[in-house]
User: Fold this.
Amino acid sequence: MKGVILAGGLGTRLQPYTFFIPKPMLPLGNKPLLEYTIEWMKNAGGVDEFVICVSYLHRTIEDYFEDGARFGVKIQYARNERPLATAGQLKTAEKLLGEAFVCVYGDSVYEFNLRKMIKMHKDSKAHLSMALMPYSTKMKYGFIDIQGNDVTGWREKPEISGLINIGCYVMEPEFLKTIPEAGAFGMDDAVRKALEQKKKVKAFEIDGTGFIDIGDKKSYLDAYKQFASRLGKI
Assistant:
C-alpha cells in the first residue's frame, strides 16, 4: 500500500521558524519531523512507497529525501506552486495513485498501530477510514441558559468533549473524485461531500497517546523536548 504525505503548507503559526524551513522539516530530536512520519508508516503500517505532496520550500524536502533509497523506501513527489489546503494538495497526487492508500498530514506525529487501521478499512470495504482521538477542553466563559427572556441556568466554564480528526486516513482512489480539479479545497469539505453521496466512512479510534499535534510554537517545543529526552544525554 502506498502512503501519501501532505507536506506543502506554509506553517504560518510556527513563524519565524518556518521562514526558511518547511514545517515538516523542523527537527524533533536528531531528525526532521517528516523522517519520523516515513519511519512510522513503514514500521507500523508496512508502507514502503510514498508520494510526498510539496509546495512551499519544496527543494528542502526533495534534496533531503531524494528518491527514498537512503531510507529503504521509494519516494515520488507531487509538486504544486502554491498551497492548496489539505484535499487540494492530495488531488495533485491523483495520477500516482491507482489503489487504496494511506494519507497523513506532514505536520503531526503518529504512534499507533497503522496495520490495524488498514485491516479494518479493508475488512469493512470502506470508501474512507479516519483515525479519531478523544479530546476534551474547558470553555473560557460560562454559558447562560435562557427560555425567552428568563434565565434558567448558569453553566460556569463547562467542559466539552468528543472525537477529533487527527489527519490520518485510509482512502480508496475513488475518494479523489470528490475533490475539484483546481483550487484550494479542505479535507473537511471532501469528507462532507463523500457523506452526502452516502459513501461508507469508517472511524478508527485511538487513545490519547498515539498522536502529537505540532500546531504552534508551544506544541512544537513541547514535542521537541519530548523527543530530545528520548535520545538521552549527548
Notes: The two ends are 37 Å apart (CA to CA). The helical segments are 33-45, 58-65, 85-91, 114-124, 187-196, 217-230. The domain at 2-132+163-230 is CATH 3.90.550.10 (Spore Coat Polysaccharide Biosynthesis Protein SpsA; Chain A).
